[in-house]
Amino acid sequence: MITVDKTSITENWRQYFLNPDEGFGTIYERFVLHRYFARLKARYDIHSVLEAPSFGMTGISGINSLWWALTGTKVTIIDQCHERLQAIRNVWKATGFEAHLVCQSPTSALLPFGDRSFDMSWNFAALWHVKDGETYLKELCRVTRTALFLCVPNQLGVCWGLRPREAAGLHLENIGTDWIISILSTNNWKLVEEGFFDTPPFPDIAMKKEDFLRRMGFRWIAKRIESGAGKKASILDYFSGRSPAMERQAMKLDFLEQSPAWFKKLWAHHRFLLFELRCVASRMRGPLDTSRTGCK
What we know:
By secondary structure, this protein is an alpha/beta fold. The protein has one domain (14-278): Vaccinia Virus protein VP39 (Rossmann fold, 3-Layer(aba) Sandwich), CATH 3.40.50. It is 34% helix and 16% strand. It has 11 helices and 7 strands. The chain has helices at 14-18, 24-44, 66-70, 82-95, 133-143, 177-185, 209-215, 219-229, 236-240, 246-250, 261-267; strands spanning 48-51, 74-79, 100-103, 118-124, 144-153, 189-197, 270-277. Helix 7 runs antiparallel to helix 8. The chain is globular, with a radius of gyration of 18 Å. The model is unreliable at 1-7 (pLDDT under 50).
């Protein structure tokens, strides 16, 4: 039985399994991630992915890789909490998609897989929940054979100072991009692209954007967002077919994703780093961040 505890960012994940109301901001960033996934799949012909660790994003945990399962990609997901992993397993079972779910001890950074087991490994806003970040990154290098796609909160953004980040268990040292690059570079991985993404027209704050707009006096905007994306909605409604128009509605607000790099550096909610194993040549050299070329 899941009980709700809202005392810290590391505990309030339970509420989303009880009430799958993710808020428009989370739904938006998931669809933005899907665009990057599509470019990654085309670039590297990916057939297997490891999401490790999976916990970090606001909303329902462990479902960021549903897009990969939808495209026929073999998905493996790591979580360091047995209770949360069981809740994730129930959600995946309800979707009808398949994923191999593995529980990793929170005191261990070792991954229970052989060398070069996955075409790509990735995570989203998750590294600061890992105790031994250096070992974890080295393990991701070991089990991956083609590409690493790592996404971290944008510490250069104007809203970074407004985010609560002192909760127990957060390791800010693990999301420093220079540090990440240095670890992977010494383990035979080459940084081939970096950029800023998840750039909606609302600020990066740790609450549902609808609630923020209400507090700022913009109730009519919050109401419009809820009526468009669906009140008490999650991206599961999209994958189940209950809300097939959800992506189109959410991406009506994607116009800042094509902004100049200097603006995205200040406003984007997240930053990505793409690495290749040094011996790998990708199939396609087009950038993941299409704002550089102006294309969609």
